[in-house]
Design brief:
It is found in: Cytoplasm; Nucleus. With 299 residues, this protein is α/β, with parallel strands linked by helices. The protein has seven helices and 13 strands. The protein has a single domain, classed as Nucleoside phosphorylase domain (Rossmann fold, 3-Layer(aba) Sandwich), CATH 3.40.50. It is globular and about 50 Å long.
Amino acid sequence: MSSVKIGIIGGTGLDDPDILAKREEKKVTTPFGDPSDSLVTGEISGTPCVLLARHGRKHTISPSNVNYRANIWALKEEGCTHVLVTTACGSLREEIKPGDLVILDQFIDRTIKRENSFYDGTTNCPVAGICHLQMDLPFCEKTRQILISVCAELGLSHHTKGTTITIEGPRFSTKAESLLFRQWGGHIVNMTTVPEACLAKEAGLCYASIALPTDYDCWRDTGEPVNVALVMKTLEENGEKAKNLLLKAVPAIAKEEWTQTLKDNQVIEPHSIRTLIIVVLEAEIRILAIVRKPQLAYL
């Protein structure tokens, strides 16, 4: 049986370290700066876990200012093989009700200000090259299926698929934007999936997201528009559901065999990196092809 260590990134109101036994706090830094808060290491049902509050434990970091690269790098360096995250969101569909859970399978990126790759090409970057990452399936399907199965076991109202529109924030959507997102096929709208999912994939981690709808965003003509008070009220009600899901999902993940999955994850990243040497060689090949092309006409 392959050993796993599970990182848990708690979103708004869902970063309670009490879910862990044998808790220890660990302050770390990374080549990309400090993560959002200290890491809290511990166990769930004997499985090693690392908890990180995405917005800081006092919720002082806006979605745009989260150091996503440092967060994922810190979990990777701590030995995590998986990352389970929670994310508050607004529903774009009548059938996805506040209080439901959505196990995300796709995203559409509407962010504009965030560092979305470890491979940024700067001189002080700890990894070389540019990474053109395959993202057709942004979430770990095997981990997703475990979360879906546990939701069913617990009798939680849930949706097995969902496309999130990740907006920059911290403001909520306009009504025109919310209606547009529905036309695009979005199921929910949130502020944190991107670049978190992209970075986790670059790092070779099994990443899955539990979305927690708190409201209907603002696309409907009836009902209360989204506001902070409404979000926090529903999050308090949803917190226990998410906690119970994580407590049961972690040991379920640990029981599975992950050797091949983790091996496959590690292959994706190297095959996506284009280093300067490769780019130069490709350029030289193209030049040679152009130079030799006229000669071929006489053969």
